[in-house]
Amino acid sequence: MPSAATIMKITFVCMLIACVIIGIAGIVTKHYGLLGLLPFGIFGSITAFIYGSSGTPSGSINPPGTGGTIKLDYPWWVWLVDVVLLIGGFIIVKVGW
To answer: Hey, which end of the chain has fewer CB within 10 Å, N or C?
Structure first.
């Protein structure tokens, strides 16, 4: 079973690969509006890796089997920038399609 750090690194690389695929698909299909999602994808990938790797896990054994959660401790400005980039990206995709 891979460690949590290994899974986090694999997830980060897969998120960046998804950004590359979106970029290539936008260029090949000449739907350049898709490139508007790249800033959100790249910024979101990097911040998720940075703050996700420093998250604090919490678990409970009472009642058993309920699992736990991970508090990511994102600063308020990260959420704000992510939302602005995502909305801006969707607007660019809609206009450019």
So the answer is: N
* H helices present in the chain, as ranges: 4-28, 38-53, 76-96
Residue 16 structure tokens = 């960046």
Give the C-alpha separation, 70 to 62, whole Å.
17
Distance of CA 53 to the CA centre of its chain: 13
In terms of Cα–Cα distance, which of 45, 31, 55 is closest to 81?
Answer: 45
Distance from C-alpha of 91 to C-alpha of 79, rounded to nearest angstrom: 18
Does 63 sit behind a cis peptide bond, omega within 30 degrees of 0 on the bond before it? yes
